[in-house]
Structure formats: C-alpha cells, structure tokens
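Appendix C reproduces, verbatim, an entry submitted by the partner laboratory led by Prof. M.T., so that reviewers can inspect both the input and the predicted structure.
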Amino acid sequence: MQGDGLDTAQLGPNKTIQNQRKRATNSPGFRPDQNFIDDNRIELDITNIVNAADGESFIGEDELSAIGLRAVEMKKLIETKKGNCLDNGIPMLGWYTLPDEITDEHVAEIIAAARQFRNDVDAFVSLGIGGSYLGIEATFKALTHTHFNQLSRADRGDVPEIYFMGQNLDPDFYRDSLDLLQGKRVGINVISKSGTTTETAIAFRILRQLVEKWAGQKAADYIIATTDKTRGALRSLAEKKRYRTFVIPDNIGGRYSVLSDVGLFGLAVAGVDIAEFLAGFRTMKQRTTTDDFWKNPALVHAAVRYLSFIKGKSIEVIASNSTHLIHLARWMEQLFPESEGQRGNGLWVSPSLYSEKLHANGQMVQDGPRIFIETFLRLRRHDNEMPIPPDPENLDGLNFLSDNRRSLNFVNDLVIDGPAYAHLEGGVPNMTIDFPARNAYNIGQLYFMMELSAAVSGYMAGINPFIQPGVEAYKKAMFALAGKPGFEEYRRTMEKSAARLRKLKI
C-alpha cells in the first residue's frame, strides 16, 4: 500500500547523528584510557611494499632498515629544532611541540568562546585557503553527517550550519553559497596570517560588508579573526573594528597548523571534540618518539615514500573506502606536495574514492605506466551497519551476500582488499593505513603521523619542507596582472615575455 513516502526509520537510528548530538557534552579534559587507546590504534601495513607478485620486492626490508637509520637521524634533528627548517629566520617546528604546549585551560577557553559564538548564529562561515582551510574542512567532513547542513539544528548537535569560503575565486560558487545564507544570522571566522591573501581577503570583504549591513553596530560580535599576534593587515583591521581574535603562531606553517587556534576554534564551533582531537595528537607523538625505526609508523611511512620516489615512482594514489575519510586524503594532497615539491623532488598525490575511481582512474593504476605507488586509507568501523536485503527473484545474483548475512560494510571492506591484491599483481606496490573509526582522536593521530612523515621525508631529500616558494610565484604573477601597486615592473616583464610568444589558438 502506498504511504506518505519512504520509511527509513525501519533501518534504525543513524549513529552519526547520535554521535553529533552527544558531542556538545564533551569536556576540555579528555583523557583516553588504555582500552580506548588499544581499540583506536592506527596501523601501517607495508606487506605489499616489501613483497611483490613476481617474488622480487619493490623495497626490501634490509633496504628499509638502512634508510631507516637516516630517518631516525632526521627525526632527532626535528626534536632538537635543527635542520633545514627556517622561514624568514624562524624555525618552523612549533607543530612538533604544540601537543605538549596546549593546556586544558586554553582548550576550555576556545570551547567557551565557540559555544557562545555558535549560540548566536544560524550559519558559520570559515574563510581561508590552504592550511587555513583544508584541515578544518577535512576534520569536519570526516566526522559529520554527509548532508550536515540539511539536518535540523538538534540533529547537528545544536550547532549552526557550517560553510567554507575563501578557498577559490569562482564568482558562481560565491553567489550560490550566499543564497544559502539568505535571511540567516551569520558568523564569520576569517583565517589569514597577513590578511592580504587574495582569495581569503576578497571573500572576507564580501562577507564582512554583508554582515555589517545586517548587524550594524553589532557586526563585530559576528566576526572572529585568526591572524598574526602583532602585525599584518588583518591584525590592524581587527583592532580597529574590535573583533575577537585568535593567534596564528609564528613558528607553525599553514599546512601544519590544524592543531593550533587556526583549526581548533572553527572545529569547536562545529561541535567537534577538540580535546579528544588533541589527545590523538599526543598519543601519536608519544608513539613516534621511539628511535626504533620498525616501531615508528611515521618514519616507516616517510622512508617508503622517499624510496619510492628514488626508485622512479612519481604519483601516489591515496585511496579510501570512505566518503568521509577521502577528505583526509585531500588534506594529505596539500601537506606532502607543498612540503616536498621543490627542485624536482616529491610525489604527486592523487586522492581517490574507491570503488568510484576503480571505474575510472583505476584502469590506469592497474594497466598504465608503472609510475604509481598506492596508499589505502581504510576505515575499519563505519558508524552505521547497512544490511543487504534478500530478493526472491535474485536477478542481480546477490543473494549469496544476503544469504550469508553479508552487509554493505563487508563488501566495502573488499574495496581495499581486492584492489590491493590486483594492483600488486599488476606491478603497483601499495601500503594500507588502517583507520579504526570515525572519531576526533583518530584524526588527531593521523595528522601528527603525516606531519612528522612529511617533515622527515623533506629532510631526507635535502629540502626545507616548511616553505613553499612555488606558491609565492603564482601569487606574484596574479598580483602583477591584477595591477596591484608595487608589482608594475614585474607586469612589464610579463608583458615583454607575452609579446615574444607566437600566438596559436585553435
């Protein structure tokens, strides 16, 4: 009989929504017990790196052990604030000590400020690009409902809708996004050390004027600035307008900054348990202090990637079986190329959602040029269990699954195991990061592990993994083309170069 529509309640409650509803009760003093730590242990499996279908391993264990000695030495340089780590004379290693420096009091201050802020708004917009954006969005999307903003406020955990802007310059994206804010009380967190980054600065100018027109004299109550402690255009504007501010540390670069105020305030507004997040950082830091190479997942990960490049690989496919964890792969897509991509060094990182991409780029990985390594980011425990129902007709031939009580979760796990075997047989070495469950603790663990890996691999390559000279090159060209004062000479150079080009348009 036809009813009023689908009844998805028969599937039981959505545990992601249940988790969101609980997060508002978390305290700033999260301390995991040993059972929790053991149950949420991230593991790195390199079986398909040190083995091969033809019997000849891509990287031998002895080879890894040898390079491992060098990885340990690079870690020691980081621990002692040495090595090629300076940016404008500042050692950019604050991310390494940050887990030990953040106090419960500071976390409590952020949580209190975020709670007060989110209670006054219907929608929250985080403005930033690169490291001021990707870690926040990746963490938020990894932990929350796929269609978060379409849920009721109660099901979101009594937090506002969450939006991200300032990461591109597409006018249609801006106009479409602003439509979703129509008639709502909107709060903004603008994140920029200088306040002059083009993408974020333009977004802030647009949003700020809309908020000022709506809120009038109270506009400052709806704007938070996360910026330099003492200098820069955004700091000056914040002081003039009396915005509440959070600080971007001088000794932490953007792509390493998600545990700082850069990431913590916005995540707290979104209802993420930032104390649990911090606990994950601390656990992984403690785990990776060991000088025993084979017990240090960050060093093994760094050594495998470094040797892969030395042995001629140029692309790392980071594939996940989770539509939520793929956002963490996008964070890694920035961390590693922006850290390692200097002087011809580094692996191109390609995030891929499996099984979707197995019907596209998967063909290239399986049978294309042998330039790939593959890293699987496997989610072991999804929030929800999805049974596969039986079908009396069985025209699709899937009753072997339902008859054996196999769920969608079981099949989705094979999205890692199947390609790992097939791609190894096809000559693509691969490793797997087993991610136990979708919680803030595990994301914190992964972030610290990857940050240390990127730093160590950069040191081994003889580069400074904390600068990004190539990024500055595009900014300079854009400023010149846009007519920014001070870039007139560079614009003339560009025009002379363009005049020498033989024009060819089809």
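The CA atoms of residues 231 and 302 lie 36 Å apart. Additional entries are available on request from the coordinating office.
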